[in-house]
Amino acid sequence: MSAADSSYIIICSALVFIMTPGLAFFYGGLLRKKSMINMMAMCFVSIAVVSIMWFFISYSLAFAPGGGFIGGLDYLGLMNVGSGNTYSANIPDMLFMMFQLMFAIITVAIIASPFSERVNFKAFVIFISIWLIIVYSPITHWIWGIGGWLKVWGVLDFAGGIVVHTNVGFSALAVALVIGPREGYRKEPMEPSNIPYVLLGTGLLWLGWFGFNGGSALAANDIGILAMFNTQIAASGGALVWLFIEYHKTEKFSTLALASGALAGLAAVTPAAGYVTPLVALIIGVVSGGICFMVLGIRSRSKVDESLDAISIHGTGGIWGALATGIFASVGAQGLILGNPMQLLIQIVAVLVTIGFSLGITFLLAWIINKTIGFRVPSEMEYIGLDIPLHGEKVE
Predict the structure, then answer these.
(1) What CATH code would you report for 3-391?
(2) Average pLDDT of 345-358?
(3) Distance between CA atoms of 25 and 324, rounded to whole angstroms?
(4) pTM of the model
(5) CA distance linking residue 210 with residue 374, whole number of Å
(6) Tell me: the pLDDT tens digits for 176-233?
(7) What are the boundaries of each domain within the chain?
(8) Cα dist from 76 to 50, 64, 143, 174, whole Å
């Protein structure tokens, strides 16, 4: 094992952790002031809930040796997880577990999007505890786990474009369909309350993404460096495209457009980061800025109140990035342009299966919780905001 590689992954794990507080600022700033603390609390409680669940069962279901669909129980409570090197010859298994924990945390935090400003906090905690086990862990095992059926088939997902972004985007859509829109949605103004928070959150997410993508090489090597630079160039391309599209519509240089475009580029390059050249990464980012902008426009005109846009940015960006990997892969793998159309077919199947599974199982889970515990807070509580009733705190 390599001390240098282990040190690198330790740093990358910390960078990925930073993404969740960053998401809290990003999401919180996009909402109205009266429910900002509630949203940030959902992001932060995800850290604690996922860490406990990961320790006891979720890591085992995702990464222990098992069948094609789900991992076994060998790693319950981290039994048999120590200084071995099951997933990398360069770092110990315990460090790999810690790195993957940070992925699970940020994924669960992203799904807070459709719960904004209208959901009982207790119901949210129950939902994410179960969702981690029955949705995130199986999909992770399919694509990254020992014996996972998509991994065996040869799917390419360098850092989670399918596992994280496609999965969580369509899970968020399922939740939004079950819960329904906020009171007054599309009838009264619901403008972001704190754009500086949005920009601060974007900056923290962008920083953390270097660990997210760069660390997925699992070594301090040329692939990790390539993934980091591809992350930077794709985010920049997405940011500028979204900015110019918004300017064309409004003749204003919107900082929110910059932030949204950067996240679109980051989500899209995630599955491809270590498999493509920088020029292709830039193309992926540029195209993602346009595609995600278009999907957000469709969503905003619909009755689907998923107003922090996990589906428009994460889901859409993840799909495009996964398919682009199948088309353009040229580093350590070969895609369509290098004469391997089978890779694109594998990517398409992986995306479609993930969409179907995450959308269907999440919808069923959310429907059951909604019928039993109930998600929605009373209308009067939603009207005054959730910060004081649920948390006894407010933003001054």
Answers:
(1) 1.10.3430.10
(2) 98
(3) 30
(4) 0.97
(5) 38
(6) 999 999 999 988 888 999 999 999 999 999 999 999 999 999 999 999 999 999 999 9
(7) 3-391
(8) 14, 9, 20, 29
